[in-house]
Design brief:
alpha+beta; about 20% strand
Length: about 140
């Protein structure tokens, strides 16, 4: 099932991708950021990835937050858990709603080749041509 344009406007979609180096990242749309076609095309894949990554046992990788986030921030605990498992986190940019800003990363990034084959099969089509470890901004073409 696809996301509709209305879904994208009212939902804060948490989606996952892989960069050109095989590094896993997460982005939250805030109901306004561009969302790539691979997310729009399959709610099921987006939810499968979200369920998988959010239900991993907590890792022990060192997390680095680029700005002080209030623990009341809606995605704080999820972001902390994800970075402890090696996932770089982005949130919709306050300055440019068509881009995402890096909010946290892990000192030991998760790579696609370490994941189970069913998750790799989904992520193989979820590529963004960037290096999330060196980029502070993630620009994404809108999938519509």
């Amino acid at each position: 099932m696809k996301y509709t344009e209305l879904d994208l406007q009212i939902e804060d979609i948490m989606w996952f991708g892989v960069d050109k180096n095989g590094t896993i990242f997460m982005a939250t749309s805030g109901g306004c950021a561009n969302v790539p076609a691979f997310v729009i095309d399959s709610k099921e894949e987006t939810e499968t990835l979200k369920d998988y990554f959010l239900n991993l046992p907590e890792g022990n990788s060192e997390s680095v937050f680029l700005e002080k986030l209030n623990p009341a921030y809606p995605a704080y605990s999820e972001c902390l858990s994800l970075t402890k498992n090696g996932i770089t986190c982005f949130d919709v940019s306050d300055d440019d709603e068509n881009a995402y800003k890096k909010i946290a990363f892990s000192k030991t990034p998760m790579k696609i080749e370490t994941l189970p084959s069913n998750i790799q099969q989904i992520l193989v089509t979820h590529h963004i041509d960037t290096d999330v470890l060196s980029s502070m901004i993630l620009s994404v073409e809108h999938g519509f």
